[in-house]
Amino acid sequence: TAVIIDDEPGSIATLKAMLERYCPTVNILRTFEYPDEAIRELPNLQPNLLFLDVEMPDINGFGVLDVLKNQLQAEVIFTTAY
After folding, report:
1. What are the E-state strand segments in the chain?
2. Residues facing residue 35 across a β-bridge
3. Helices 35-45 and 61-68: angle between axes, nearest 10 degrees
4. pTM, full prediction
5. Quick one: which of 28, 22, 70, 24 has its CA closest to 51?
6. At 75, is the secondary structure helix, strand, or coil?
7. I need a surface site. Which of 9, 15, 52, 72 has the fewest CB within 10 A?
8. Is the pLDDT confidence value at 82 over 80?
9. Which residues partner with 51 through β-bridges?
10. Distance between CA atoms of 38 and 28, rounded to whole angstroms?
11. Band of the pLDDT at 80, cuts 50, 70, 90?
């Protein structure tokens, strides 16, 4: 199971399409454009895999991980244009 967090809707759509085509066994539970919303919801979702953008407004991907470090057991793949 996976969750995607990225502030760019186009990046989310591209990653979803790639996963559906090349990794059909990955079940995308949810996507988030706003990191603060993801921080609230992720403890309940408990994905196995987290695709996480590094550069986002308000809080970056490392900040998201810092907030959730004791609440999440997912493997993380950073997705970024930087």
Report:
1. 2-5, 28-32, 49-53, 75-79
2. none
3. 40
4. 0.94
5. 28
6. strand
7. 9
8. no
9. 4, 77
10. 14
11. confident
Query: How would you class 47 by CB atoms within 10 Å of its CB: exposed for 0-12, middle for 13-18, buried for 19 or more?
Result: buried
Sequence-separated contacts (24+) of 33-41 with Cβ below 8 Å: 33/6, 33/7, 33/8, 33/9, 34/7, 35/5, 35/7, 35/59, 35/61, 35/63, 35/64, 38/3, 38/5, 38/64, 39/64, 39/67, 39/68
pLDDT in tens, 21-49: 999 999 999 999 999 999 999 999 999 99
| Edge-to-edge strands, sheet with 49-53 | 28-32, 2-5, 49-53, 75-79
Residue 53: strand pairing partners: 79
